Amino acid sequence: MTTQEDKKIILFDGVCNLCNGAIQFVIKHDKKSVYKFAALQSDVATVLLNERGIDSSQIDSIILIDPNIAFYTKSTAALEIGKSFGGAWRLLGVFEWVPKPIRDWIYDFVAKNRYSWFGKQNECMIPTPELKAKFLD
């Protein structure tokens, strides 16, 4: 898989309204253009997950891939992304003191209910021409 090695990759549920809103939020706050994006339902996500031995049937929400370093899932991915915005966003690091099982239980509760609370699209988000460069094909 050839990606820009210096870019972190966020894999997200492309049909989830909450997830799409979160990606729009990340794009707005990603002032240093650190991230690239791909829907979990895409072929590129399948390749990236397989390369890392991640079972996509076990994780159906957010995955942050930091190429050649690590990957993060669920609450840890969300915290890592938030902290990367800098400034007051770094205060999110305080939530890392909450044990991961507790953080992930809350994350999983929201993820389990995201379609009923926020809705679902019939197909993955199509990025605007201006945003197309931020998405992996």
How would you explain this protein's 3D organization?
Helices cover 37% and strands 13% of the residues. The protein has a four-stranded mixed beta sheet with strand order 2-1-3-4, covered by helices on one side. The N and C termini lie close together (11 Å). The chain is built from four helices and four strands. It has helices spanning 17-29, 43-51, 74-83, 100-118; strands spanning 8-12, 35-39, 63-66, 70-73. The model has no long low-confidence stretch (mean pLDDT 85). The longest helix is centred in the C-terminal third of the chain and has 19 residues, at 100-118. The chain is globular. It has 137 residues and is α+β, with helices and mostly antiparallel strands. β3 (63-66) and β4 (70-73) form a beta hairpin. The protein has one domain (8-122).
Secondary structure elements and pairings:
Layout lengths: L7 E5 L4 H13 L5 E5 L3 H9 L11 E4 L3 E4 H10 L16 H19 L19
Parallel strand pairs: 1-2
Antiparallel strand pairs: 1-3, 3-4
Structural descriptors:
globular; 37% helix; 137 residues; four-stranded mixed sheet; alpha+beta
